[in-house]
Amino acid sequence: MIRYLCTATLLTTVFCQQFPPDIKDDIFNIISNTSVILKECSGTVVSPSELTFTLFNQENPENGIVLDHTNLQQVKPENRLILIIHGWLQSASQSWIIQMKDVYLNQTAANIIVVDWSRSAGINYASSVCAVPQVGSYVADLIFNITSDNAAQLNNTQINGFSLGAHVAGIAGQDIQTKTNGHKIGRINGLEAAGPGFVGRPANKRLDKKDAWFVQAIHTNNWQFGYGLSYATVDFQVNKLLLNCGAFQRGCPFFSGVPKSISNDILEGLLPHIFCNHIRAAVYFIESINSGNFIGVSCKSCFRFGLGLCKSSPTAVMGENCPSDVSGDYYLSTNARTPLARGD
Ligand SMILES: *[C@@H]1O[C@H](CO)[C@@H](O)[C@H](O)[C@H]1NC(C)=O
Ligand SMILES: *[C@@H]1O[C@H](CO)[C@@H](O)[C@H](O)[C@H]1NC(C)=O
Ligand SMILES: *[C@@H]1O[C@H](CO)[C@@H](O)[C@H](O)[C@H]1NC(C)=O
Ligand SMILES: *[C@@H]1O[C@H](CO)[C@@H](O)[C@H](O)[C@H]1NC(C)=O
């Protein structure tokens, strides 16, 4: 762990010179497991015009259609609706988002809506945290405007949210229930739901198992960027290092698994490494769309998993193909390089 911490800290110190100082401090604090200074959110205003919702489907796989309330009929009700929501310091043009969308559309006639809230996500961490509830409520408006009270279509809706985007998904899932008298979104995948600012907060301020019919959590950086406690219908804890499960990933920080960004932006180039353990949740998820090989084993604790006491316990496939009838904590290990799934 020390080694990982040192490498990450080194990367931060050496390369963060170009980041705005408040962002640099936030990254340093989060990586060294000290709390970030949160703030009173009362003055935060996110205007709807800051958000962009872009629809991709098999007819428009590259150049998406920017949605507003006049063209929502472009979303085909007979197909699945999948929303993808980015996290802190990210935008909709993140390479992992483009890859996730491409992998889905290669095999599924889905409506993929990519949410961009980069303006509020591109500032200091505490301010981005404050924007989450409002962004979540706009996402709920969009889903409600598309599906109205159609429970079957809501059941056919899934949100994949990364980091702060996972909590945006949670708030959207709660708002949908308020708007529809208790109807729920089918599934939310919490890809490394953010930890700082959310641990210790009540369930209605963050992503939680009640926010959809089925909530799956993938934990890859517990107690740093990620939410270290179990919070979902099913929680997958990926990889074990010393006494930590779901915290440090094989191959990090040098092999992040994120496709190389086309931009030469220092932030884009470096963040995959600083976020290596964190972003892996999204990387595993993308591989899982065409794979049933991330196989978790049910276990009561990381300690018992480490001792090999759960080898004959029930298993569950992690990721896109996770069945809806599993619950509780599951543990698994991965490879350090692609294919990351081990199949055992
Ligand atoms: C799409 O599918 C083809 C054939 O299975 C495969 O060769 C290609 O790599 C896939 N592309 C993506 C982005 O998944
Ligand atoms: C949803 O519909 C309401 C009422 O027509 C409109 O004010 C709002 O802008 C719409 N929001 C989205 C995201 O489509
Ligand atoms: C939605 O899915 C849940 C669980 O998968 C099920 O209990 C519920 O009845 C479904 N609702 C509708 C309207 O299909
Ligand atoms: C980080 O801090 C939390 C709470 O203070 C602690 O439970 C956890 O073990 C720490 N994680 C690491 C990786 O040191």
Question: How does this structure look, described?
Answer:
Helix content is 33%, strand content 16%. The protein contains ten helices and 13 strands. The chain has helices at residues 2-15, 21-31, 95-107, 118-121, 125-147, 151-155, 164-179, 266-274, 276-288, 302-306; strands spanning 52-56, 65-66, 81-85, 111-116, 157-162, 187-191, 214-219, 234-238, 240-241, 244-245, 295-298, 315-317, 328-332. An eleven-stranded mixed β-sheet has the order 2-1-4-3-5-6-7-8-13-11-12, with helices on both faces. Strands 9-10 form a two-stranded antiparallel ribbon. Helix 3 (95-107) packs parallel to helix 9 (276-288). The two termini are 25 Å apart. The mean pLDDT is 92. Bound molecules: 2-acetamido-2-deoxy-beta-D-glucopyranose (4 copies). The site of one 2-acetamido-2-deoxy-beta-D-glucopyranose has 4 residues, from loops. The site of one 2-acetamido-2-deoxy-beta-D-glucopyranose (NAG) has 5 residues, from helix 6.
